[in-house]
Write a structure and sequence with these properties.
Layout (H helix, E strand, L loop, with lengths): L7 E2 L3 E9 L3 E8 L6 E7 L5 H16 L8 E7 L2 E7 L6 H7 L6 H19 L5 E2 L8 E3 L5 E3 L6 E2 L29 H17 L22 H10 L11 H20 L3 H23 L5
Helix pairs in contact: 3-4, 3-6, 4-5
């Protein structure tokens, strides 16, 4: 079912335009007729859902309705109309990290990737501190949106789950190949350390432009693709990507502390590099603005 601009849904939301389509859903930009001036993203399940797909959708609704964090997309409304499920969510003005990676000819700057990692750690720590803990299970560049200001939002909690210490392994292996740890494929239960592995794979991708799906849990040394990284960055990503959960960081709070130390180190090094480094950063931000402008308007800028 394709919805035309101008259509009114749930006596409240006027469809403005199509924002994008995926395998199971379509996202529209809508205008809220009740809250004047508010614009939202409307997610529509685009086919008659199988039982597990509907369960995934309702799980996302359940999580978003109870969770509130600056790095999580906000759920505004949920309704069923014409037999279709609709989620009304906060609109994020910016591309996904995957789109930024796809548009880049060179690995992203180390300092920017570390800043993204810190924001991810903050929201993961929030999820993991819930009672019971919420395991995200699908952390990847495509589920990280970044605003023009560099603020990060996690989207799609469709396969997140509550941690159950009494279960030896997950009931169903779900997730995205390359970013999911071995235990997510039926070898054990996903825990907070599973999300840490996925974060490590995401950072590896951003800093090398190499798709983690090509490595099947055996990541080559990151220096094989990027020889300009600091030793602490190499060590942090290596520890995140350990096959055994016990060998990774114990939790995201410890990982966050390591990343903060790394951020301070990189800032100190940046201050000592002078004008050339400042020009590199300026050119990088210009590139990001170009990517964001293309994403929002479809137009290239100089």
């Amino acid at each position: 079912m394709s919805i035309k601009p101008g259509a009114i849904l749930n006596h409240r939301y006027e469809v403005v335009r199509n924002l994008g389509e995926g395998a199971t859903s379509t996202v529209y930009l809508v205008r809220d007729k009740r809250e004047k001036g508010e614009m939202w993203a409307l997610k529509q399940l685009t086919h008659s859902p199988e039982e597990d797909e509907r369960e995934s959708l309702l799980r996302e609704v359940g999580f978003l309705s109870t969770l509130e964090h600056e790095n999580l997309v906000r759920l505004v409304d949920y309704f069923v109309q014409y037999g279709w499920d609709f989620l009304v969510m906060e609109r994020v003005m910016g591309p996904t990290l995957q789109e930024i990676i796809d548009e880049s000819r060179h690995p992203l700057y180390e300092s920017d990737v570390v800043e993204y990692a810190l924001q991810v750690c903050r929201v993961l720590s929030y999820l993991h501190r819930q009672d019971p803990p919420v395991i995200y299970r699908d952390l990847k560049p495509g589920n990280i949106m970044i605003t023009v200001q560099g603020h990060l939002k996690l989207i799609d909690l469709g396969i997140a789950r509550h941690f159950n210490p009494m279960k030896p392994k997950d009931t169903t292996p779900l997730g995205t190949p390359g970013y999911c740890p071995p235990e997510q494929y039926g070898f054990g239960q996903t825990t907070q350390r599973s999300d840490i592995y996925s974060l490590g794979a995401t950072l590896y991708h951003a800093l090398t432009l190499q798709d983690p799906a090509d490595f099947k849990f055996d990541f080559p040394p990151i220096t094989q693709f990027n020889g300009n990284l600091s030793e602490p960055t190499i060590e942090i990503i290596h520890k995140c990507l350990m096959k055994s959960p016990e060998d990774r960081f114990e939790n995201t709070d410890i990982l966050y502390d390591n990343l903060m130390e790394l951020k301070n180190l990189l800032a100190h090094q940046s201050n000592n590099t002078g004008f050339r480094m400042k020009m590199k950063i300026k050119n990088y931000h210009k590139k990001i603005r170009r990517i964001v402008t293309k994403f929002l308007t479809g137009k290239e800028i100089d």
